[in-house]
Specification:
Strand content: 15-25%
Distance between the termini: 35 Å
Oligomer: single chain
Largest sheet: 8 strands, mixed
Shape: globular
Strand order of the largest sheet: 3-2-1-4-5-6-7-8
Order of helices and strands: HHHEHEHEHEHEEHHEE
Helix content: 25-40%
Length: 245
């Protein structure tokens, strides 16, 4: 179905880009994206996914808004404290894009939830703050052959990697011994703007993947805001890892 005149006006700055055009904008409209974690990373990713014209979003998070969230989780305000994040996020995103179809899952991610919801989406965005949960997401996406965009942040920096099962490494290739999971329950500091930067990068990777443009699926992108430096560490899928099958 063609875009209507209202959509052409809203997305005009994207449509005039050669790599997008009306055909690309229709692809975004027809796509479904699952964002797991509606915190700092998720707030930024969701805002831009909604604004750029993604047609269907799934929001998965079992948490409620707390005061300590507000330095970085820009979907929420003081009036939202104590409310479920997915419900507040749905209302904010609907105000940005009234045509957006939103499904909320007011649950923390576990193996059951991952197995039930991930297969229904075109691509997944990892906005989690626990490596234990990230490995659950990784394994479910690899099993369902669904791509996902990983990001993590801490203090003044962060990391990003796009996982495309069958054509690149996954998180288990990067952390084969799950050593990072030991820090899963520790609270770490983060400057508010950092998850905004990484979450926005995740949204951009989603759009590029859906449009068939190159994505960063051959290594880990490292962002250091203190040095204002962005570098990439290249690595390949581990021999024998299920992500390559």
């Amino acid at each position: 179905m063609d875009l209507d005149n209202a959509a052409r006006e809203v997305y005009s700055r994207q449509i005039i880009i050669n790599e997008i055009g009306e055909a690309g904008q229709r692809k975004l409209r027809d796509a479904s994206v699952l964002v797991i974690g509606c915190g700092g990373l998720g707030s930024a990713a969701l805002l831009y996914l909604a604004a750029m014209g993604i047609g269907c979003l799934g929001l998965c998070d079992g948490d409620v808004v707390s005061p300590s969230n507000l330095n970085r989780q820009v979907l929420y305000t003081m009036d939202d404290i104590g409310k479920p994040k997915v419900s507040v996020a749905r209302d904010r995103l609907s105000a940005i894009n009234p045509k957006l179809k939103i499904t909320i899952y007011n649950h923390y991610l576990d193996e059951r939830v991952a197995g039930e919801i991930i297969p229904h989406y075109d691509i997944v965005v990892d906005c989690l703050d626990s490596f234990d949960a990230r490995f659950i997401l990784n394994d479910a996406c690899v099993a369902a052959k669904k791509p996902f965009i990983h990001a993590g942040v801490g203090e003044f920096g962060g990391q990003l990697m796009t996982v495309t099962p069958g054509t690149g490494p996954c998180l288990r290739c990067l952390f084969p011994n799950e050593k990072q999971s030991k820090r899963s329950n520790e609270v770490s500091g983060v400057v508010g703007a950092v998850p905004g930067i990484l979450g926005t990068m995740q949204a951009l990777e989603v759009v590029k993947y859906l449009l068939g443009l190159p994505v960063s699926n051959d290594g880990l992108v490292i962002y250091d805001s203190l040095r204002m430096n962005l570098e990439k560490i290249h690595f390949e899928a581990s021999p024998g890892c299920v992500c390559g099958k």
